[in-house]
Amino acid sequence: MTADSSTIGRKPVMADVARLAGVSHQTVSRVLNDSPNVKDQTRDRVLHAIRELDYRPNSAARALVTRRSQTLGVVSFDTTLYGPASMLYGIEQAARSAGYFVSIASLRSLDARSMQEAMERLHDQAVEGVLVLAPQISAVGALAQVSGEVPVVAIGSGPQARVPAVAVDNKAGARAVTRYLLDLGHRTVHHVAGPSTWLDAQMRLAGWRATLAEAGAAEPAVLAGDWSARSGYEAGLQLAEDPEVTAVFCANDHMALGLLRALNEAGRAIPGDISVAGFDDIPEASYFTPPLTTVRQDFGELGRRGLELLVEQIEGGVRVRPRMLVPPELVLRRSTSAPRG
Amino acid sequence: MTADSSTIGRKPVMADVARLAGVSHQTVSRVLNDSPNVKDQTRDRVLHAIRELDYRPNSAARALVTRRSQTLGVVSFDTTLYGPASMLYGIEQAARSAGYFVSIASLRSLDARSMQEAMERLHDQAVEGVLVLAPQISAVGALAQVSGEVPVVAIGSGPQARVPAVAVDNKAGARAVTRYLLDLGHRTVHHVAGPSTWLDAQMRLAGWRATLAEAGAAEPAVLAGDWSARSGYEAGLQLAEDPEVTAVFCANDHMALGLLRALNEAGRAIPGDISVAGFDDIPEASYFTPPLTTVRQDFGELGRRGLELLVEQIEGGVRVRPRMLVPPELVLRRSTSAPRG
DNA sequence: AGCCGCCATGTGAACGCTAACAATGCCGTA
DNA sequence: TACGGCATTGTTAGCGTTCACATGGCGGCT
Q1: What distance, in Å, lies between the first and last C-alpha atoms of chain A?
Q2: Is B227 exposed, middle or buried (0-12, 13-18, 19+ CB in 10 A)?
């Protein structure tokens, strides 16, 4: 049994294909890389040999010589949330059609250190670019330090980001829903905010605040939540005690869910006594009791756009810093109405 | 400027480190791989040089020669759902500490063909093992064909799987909740099932059915849902028309949410008129109106266990076919009570 | 006919790392 | 003193690709 006798026992390599097709390994490589200068007949023989041997190119060898890993990294904080999970899905779909693999790194906590760890982890893997799904402010800071080695695109980060970013126009969404409630005739609109460490929360807060100011409406004290239904519930208990409250805008749908329950327990009719609106339009939102008026974000689209931007940077080599704002859409359901009387 | 003058302009490689430390590249390699036979003093010099140059080993080169990519693949169908998303998170955490990278492939649809595509995609990336998060029956079938090249572990698949698997004991969970409702005094329990193409749905159905049979309770017609709140809502509209219904077990929490809304709209009190239970214990479940009695699954734990099993297979080389069932836990909340009267 | 140029293919040398083996130096022991 | 053995380090040869360049054949032009 000499070295060149057969490929039995080990995975076939390019040379095996070449031998079977009666060409040089380089010609096989040409076929694999769609080089134009290969005779059709030769190409066919090579392709046939490839199928015959069930040959698969070795990605490590290719990566070594081309210096391209064909891999993108995704850093995310809490993939359990509906938003990040949907984005991840959109990203993977888009990456596939752009010819990239997707590798993930989840952050355990949100400090700059974890972010740096995650980036290094991806870096060690030789990713060609990174998408960051961490819309928190601290993350943005962390990002500024780390980047520079590979292209980075932030998804869901506000305009503060020092890297190219795509985000939903949270401010516009918040304005739309607040405006809508005021137009219904409410004297003012209360707000249950997300954690102030999140850019989305800040933007939504800012949009709400600006709209009230423009309308000359009084600005009630902000209730601080943490995105969870629990925090919305707690906010609801507080608001239920105040008879002045007729409209509440929650910074996300989960908090709105908790709020609905609290108001319900407190015997407040929705929307009869109090109108409630959320943000996100999670799939369940239309099945809340009552169905929730909210602001729809297309997370999948966001992921796809971010990926496009990243690929452009990688392949175009440009290091521009574009910023894309995807407009959200107000979705009206039964949890909001004109105030009583 | 000769070739060996400096590392300016290109990324440092092992030889650069070696030169700076005054050793051979092999010694650098030894330090990097924690070889025991390196003098402390030498090791220090090498480490210092590594830091000095900010040297990073080239993973492609290492993968090429070791024939190990240090990468695991995760195939998932709908990462948007709470379950898969949580598992993914658990997996990534566990993979990191086991020294692996995680690469993902999402299925666009559920046929064997897509599954095969996803597996090939991961295969091309030279993953050392694959975790499949597709609890659907068709996926299991697809799996049987593809596997063989690399170790595969299915997560969330039932005992039908031809590969090692970890899953929640859906049947036991369904039995527990059904038993509980019967013990409260309900004559029987209605069931809103998940799609029959899902193993989890089948197992929950089977557990419910078996418990009714054991108790000698009549088995009402099953309502078929698709996991969505919408389908639960539709089931709720139907059930609301039947005055005999006093207890409903929904195969997941989202459907329970829709069901709650339908019953609520139909003027049925919960749990006064009808008790409702779900399955999963998503974070929002305790904020439904009323808070939902359900069966808790620890998805993160499931992911971690699956990863452990996979790593064992890869590193141990054994190809055993263990099957792990993680017991779920019944969580009692206010949506269930003894029947009226 | 002779020559140029293009097309199709082959040859050799990287890419950056680890594995296998060789070489060196130092120790203790016979 | 000589020698075996161990700890430490160096040398060489791949791993499986792609890249750069060399080669050979063929047609069209002068």
Answers
A1: 95
A2: buried
**Residuewise pLDDT in 10s, chain B (341 residues):** 333 345 556 789 999 999 999 999 999 999 999 988 889 999 999 999 999 999 999 999 999 999 999 999 999 877 667 778 888 888 998 999 999 999 999 887 777 788 888 888 999 999 999 999 877 766 666 666 665 678 988 887 655 667 788 889 999 999 999 999 999 999 999 999 999 988 889 999 999 999 999 999 999 999 999 999 999 999 999 999 999 999 999 999 999 999 999 999 999 999 999 999 999 999 899 999 899 999 999 988 899 999 999 999 898 766 556 778 889 999 999 999 999 87
Residue ranges with strand state E in B7-50: none
Residues of A in Cβ contact (< 8 Å) with B228 = 283
Q: How far apart are CA A201 and CA A138, in angstroms?
A: 13
Query: Residue A290 phi/psi, 5° resolution?
Result: -85, 170
Domains, chain A: 5-66 (1.10.260.40), 71-168+299-327 (3.40.50.2300), 170-297 (3.40.50.2300)
Question: Is B73 touching A (CB cutoff 8 A)?
Answer: no
Task: For residue B170, give how far its alpha carbon lies from the nearest alpha carbon of chain A (Å).
Answer: 21
Q: Which residue, among B56, B76, B284, would best test binding to A if mutated, counting the most A CBs under 10 Å from its CB?
A: B284
The token pair that represents B237 in the structure block: 């509209």
pLDDT in tens, A25-40: 999 999 999 988 889 9
- For chain A, give the percent of residues with pLDDT over 70: 89
How far apart are the C-alpha atoms of A211 and A175, rounded to whole Å?
6
- Closest residue, chain B, to A230 (C-alpha): B287
Which residues are registered as beta bridge partners of B192? B223, B250
Q: Are the CB atoms for A284 and A125 separated by under 8 Å?
A: no
Euclidean distance between CA atoms A277 and A317, whole angstroms: 43
Distance CA A335, CA B61 (A): 59
Residues forming beta bridges with residue A192, ordered by sequence position: A223, A250
The alpha carbon of residue B187 is apart from the nearest alpha carbon of chain A, in Å, by: 28
How confident is the prediction for chain A on average, in pLDDT?
A: 89
Q: Which helix (H) or strand (E) holds B291?
A: none
The residues, ordered by sequence, that sit 6+ positions from B216 with a Cβ below 8 Å of its Cβ are: none
CA torsion A264-A268-A274-A278 (nearest 10°) is: -10
Q: What are phi and psi of A239, to 5 degrees?
A: -65, -30
Contact (CB, 8 A) for A50 and A25: no
Burial of residue A218 (CB within 10 Å: 0-12, 13-18, 19+) is: exposed
Farthest-apart Cα atoms in chain A, separation = 95
